[in-house]
Design brief:
The protein is α/β, with parallel strands linked by helices. α1 packs antiparallel against α2 and α6 packs across α7. The longest helix has 17 residues. The protein is globular and about 65 Å long. The termini are far apart.
Length: 484
């Protein structure tokens, strides 16, 4: 069994005086070990023990990371919740995982929790005047055999679920990523995704594996200034972030230091990938999911140009196959333990241990995966099957479009019809529907072209990096009714 204390101690020993984290100050791996042990001692003083579930709520910060590592060092289960969730949603999440202890960033949280939930202030917990590594005579607790995480799925196609991972899941996820995309001492990975999302948190485990430094940007800083100010070598993005970087007013951005740009979390158009590669962004497209501790397949640096638009090949420590119905099935060392529901663990696996992802895809003869969309995002219009992701990819390839989400609304004649919510770049106004239809007519058959286009609303935000399709479906129905 993987023990976090051993993993962290190895990193402190092998990468000693290299930076582990860079924010306003740099913390070396040797110093990190000492600070995390101090945080763990404080946690034990507050009654946290092996396998206790402790919620962690705050924005990306060094203090957040120290608390997270401290929980794992203690052997606890770190439950990472979005800082953007309203109080009612936080309480619901805590109820689902039967959590009675929360670590809060009081500077970011505007609400209080009920008295039966013990609250620890994040900044007080992580406060250390000077990080000092423990000496050989320092007394350390017995090695913790527990430790793990709970992430909530995005809920983009239903109610969020509480995904339980063991520390081993994250360890093997980082190993497989390392083989394909090394992250070494001297490298710098920008923390550009939220830590409550598995894609952001995975960066922390990759650092411990290869010795690279994680750069924690100022909350007010944009990705562009961080790239140039910190000579970033590695970057994780969702497609809309890449598209912002590729917008016309960013063409002079120096990206010469970049070694790898990992892009996933949503459909990405081949056109965008080609543009990014031409502009010097070393893009690695990837397919992953919360239940598999982030990446499952990823393209490699040496892949041929015609493979760059796929989701890549299977990484080590994972297994994947396509069912007879076209659904992607996964398992392996990174597969989660199950869904937490109170004190129960629900294991949604078949008799051979395969997990059905609800994603549709196919493998080419040499093993490259193409993801076609999700089962639950497919709808039928006039007897034709339509995948929302296909339409989204084509709208996203139109000029000045940053992001599009397509949902289905009831239609008396066709059963269902597609509706698009679109976020435009910069100050560009949403074009008339006819302009979209003309632009898409060269890319999609007629029955796949949406009839209605609305601006992406803030209400679609879920505290995740993905929009809430169920919210958008209801909103689309209301907007169409009001415009009739």
């Amino acid at each position: 069994m993987i023990e976090f204390r051993q993993w962290l101690a190895r990193a402190a020993r092998e990468y000693a005086d290299y930076p582990a984290f860079i924010s306003s100050n740099a913390v070396t791996y040797r110093e990190l070990f000492g600070v995390v042990t101090s945080v763990s001692e404080k946690l034990r003083g507050e009654g946290v023990d092996s396998s206790h579930r402790v919620a962690l709520i705050g924005g990306n910060s060094l203090e957040y990371i120290l608390a997270f590592y401290g929980l794992l060092y203690t052997g606890a289960i770190a439950c990472l919740l979005s800082v953007r969730l309203p109080r009612t949603a936080v309480l619901k999440h805590l109820e689902v995982i039967n959590c009675r202890h929360a670590i809060l960033d009081q500077n970011s949280i505007e609400f209080t929790l009920p008295g039966h939930i013990k609250v620890t202030d994040l900044n007080e917990l992580a406060a250390c005047p000077k990080p000092v590594a423990p000496t050989a005579s320092s007394e350390l607790p017995p090695a913790a055999t527990g430790g793990g995480t709970i992430f909530f799925t995005s809920g983009s196609s239903g109610q969020p679920k509480a995904v339980l991972h063991s520390l081993s899941n994250h360890y093997y996820s980082a190993l497989g990523s390392y083989v394909n995309m090394p992250f070494l001492t001297g490298d710098r990975w920008l923390l550009s995704l939220p830590l409550h999302h598995v894609g952001g948190c995975a960066i922390l485990f990759r650092a411990l594996t290869g010795g690279g430094a994680v750069v924690i940007p100022d909350p007010a800083a944009d990705i562009e200034s961080s790239l140039s100010g910190h000579r970033i070598t590695h970057l994780s993005l969702v497609p809309v972030q890449l598209k912002r970087l590729m917008s016309s007013d960013r063409t002079g951005l120096d990206v010469s230091a970049l070694k790898a740009v990992l892009v996933g979390g949503a459909p990405i158009s081949t056109t965008l990938v080609e543009r990014a590669l031409k502009a010097g962004y070393p893009v690695h497209t990837t397919y992953g999911l919360t239940e598999m501790a982030s990446q499952v397949t990823t393209t490699s640096a040496g892949d041929l140009p015609n493979k760059k638009g796929t989701a890549g090949k299977l990484l080590e420590h994972r297994k994947l196959k396509i069912s007879n119905s076209g659904e992607i099935l996964v398992k392996g060392d990174t597969l989660f333990a199950g869904y937490i529901q109170g004190d129960s663990l629900i294991k949604p696996f078949d008799n051979e241990g395969w997990f059905a992802t609800s994603d549709l895809g196919h493998l080419d003869p040499v093993g490259y995966l193409t993801v076609n969309g999700r089962n639950d995002n497919m709808f039928i219009s006039g007897g034709e099957n339509i995948h929302a992701e296909e339409i989204e990819a084509e709208i996203n390839s139109l000029e000045n479009v940053l992001e599009a989400t397509v949902v289905a609304v009831p239609d008396e004649m066709y059963g269902q019809r597609p509706v698009a919510f679109v976020r435009m770049a910069g100050n560009h106004a949403l074009p008339e529907a006819e302009a979209f239809r003309v632009g898409l007519s060269r890319r999609l058959v007629g029955f796949k072209i949406p009839e209605w286009y609305f601006p992406m609303p803030a209400v679609a935000e879920t505290g995740s990096i993905k929009p809430d399709r169920r919210v958008l479906e209801k909103l689309a129905t209301r907007l169409i009714r009001e415009s009739s």
